[in-house]
Description:
The complex is a heterodimer.
Chain A: E1 5-7, E2 10-13, E3 19-24, E4 31-38, E5 42-50, E6 53-57, E7 64-68, E8 74-78, E9 87-94, E10 104-105, E11 109-113
Parallel strand pairs in A: 2-11
Antiparallel strand pairs in A: 1-3, 3-8, 4-5, 4-9, 5-6, 7-8, 9-10, 9-11
Chain B: E1 3-5, E2 10-14, E3 19-21, E4 24-26, E5 33-39, E6 46-52, E7 59-61, E8 64-69, E9 74-79, E10 88-95, E11 101-103, E12 107-112
Amino acid sequence: KAGVTQTPRYLIKTRGQQVTLSCSPISGHRSVSWYQQTPGQGLQFLFEYFSETQRNKGNFPGRFSGRQFSNSRSEMNVSTLELGDSALYLCASYPGWGTNTEAFFGQGTRLTVV
Amino acid sequence: AQKVTQAQTEISVVEKEDVTLDCVYETRDTTYYLFWYKQPPSGELVFLIRRNSFDEQNEISGRYSWNFQKSTSSFNFTITASQVVDSAVYFCALSRQGGKLIFGQGTELSVKP
């Protein structure tokens, strides 16, 4: 069974640009959550999607957005990039919403903003 | 508000030593879930254990064991006879529902040969 796939693995962008990150969950999983990991703030929850609907959102500015498609794949978008957006972005997949089973994480996308 | 505190930022041990990673949590919920994840250098978080708030039984899995004490809001993780392959960052996390995990700051464990 394939794991969670995140693309791209590495990305370098310039301040002011926008970026789209992709996450393909484990086959059959319907929930996807996104997290930002930085040395200063640690792991912070961005948002969660289930059945194409955002179910939960963390405390991030509106520049951070996401969506989920009918095949459960998810994308997150960051517009008007700032230097502080440089981070490892991790995606997690779950069988369903509210089940509190373990999350399966991808290897992440390392975003560097210059 | 929910919060997870891992007071130990870094721990260094020599192989075969036992090591305990501390985790203290705060929540007003009566139903919640606690987790431990391991993050190797490759970046992905690897699930180790989940415990719900109504199950205070300690658990042992091979060299790993967990001690959950609601009275002190702690969920500590012990590695017995540590090995070099145990070197990683370990995260304790708390969840009330669904996929929103509240993580501690992590403990970087270094096991030297």
